[in-house]
Write a structure and sequence with these properties.
Blueprint (H helix, E strand, L loop, with lengths): L1 H41 L3 H10 L15 E6 L5 E6 L29 E4 L6 H9 L3 E5 L5 H12 L4 E5 L7 E5 L2 E4 L6 H10 L19
Parallel strand pairs: 3-5, 4-5
Antiparallel strand pairs: 1-2, 2-7, 4-6, 6-7
Helix pairs in contact: 1-2
Protein name: DUF3105 domain-containing protein
Pfam families: DUF3105 (PF11303)
Keywords: Membrane, Transmembrane, Transmembrane helix
Length: 222
């Protein structure tokens, strides 16, 4: 049993390491592309402006709901994870978004994501930026003022060691500690709750990810 768990953890770490290498390579390519395109723009070529705009968008066409709205409801699973059954739109917006749940599990969001490479924030985040991180396959750990300080510290330590995660306070949520991924959410009793590891294992860059491998760096940070 222990050997199987160790093998699973080793495979997971290898997968995360490979994603990080791919992300770094992609960032290098993007920087080169940005420099080249900027030179073209300076030269006054209109085509260069079009390329630049396209290079800054990471949306896939045809992936939003036909009406551009989020609709549906949570369905609770036997494992305690609630799954959103319905539509989660994926439009880039500049205005505030009214999400049906807090923390939100998806929907329209800002074009810029919150950095989620094991980033721990001490202030509440703008939901529309964090939702973009979820779209990239991140797990978002949130806690209210009711969460024990010791649990907050332990969770922060775990997040810092795990790529594609982020953590922030949220006094609007109904439970002390919550874990959120795109379309999925659960409450945990504390940092030592075994469901924390299970949620991370399943949803960090999990099958629910709309944009697997997308960047969790070069976004916003506090």
């Amino acid at each position: 049993m222990g050997s199987a768990k160790k093998s699973s953890n080793t495979a997971r770490q290898a997968r995360i390491a490979e994603m990080r290498r791919a992300e770094e390579a992609r960032d290098r390519r993007n920087r080169i592309l940005t420099i080249a395109v900027s030179a073209v723009v300076v030269a006054g070529l209109a085509v260069g402006g079009v390329v630049l705009v396209r290079s800054q968008s990471d949306d896939s066409s045809g992936d939003t709901a036909s009406d551009g709205k989020t609709s549906g409801k949570f369905v609770a699973g036997k494992d305690g994870v609630r799954k959103w059954e319905g539509t989660l739109s994926r439009n880039h917006v500049t205005e505030e978004v009214s999400y049906p749940v807090d923390p939100p599990v998806g929907g329209d969001h800002d074009q810029v994501w919150m950095n989620c490479d094991g980033d721990v924030y001490t202030k509440p985040l703008k939901n529309r930026n964090a939702v973009h991180s979820l779209e990239h396959g991140a797990v978002w750990v949130t806690y209210s003022g009711k969460a024990p300080e010791a649990d907050v510290e332990k969770l922060a330590e775990k997040v810092r060691k795990t790529p594609y995660t982020l953590m922030s306070p949220d006094d609007e949520q109904k439970d002390p500690i919550m874990l959120t991924a795109w379309g999925h959410q659960r409450t945990v009793t504390g940092a030592d709750d075994p469901n924390v590891d299970k949620f991370f294992e399943k949803f960090v860059q999990g099958e629910q990810t709309p944009e697997p491998g997308a960047a969790c760096t070069n976004g916003l940070s506090q």
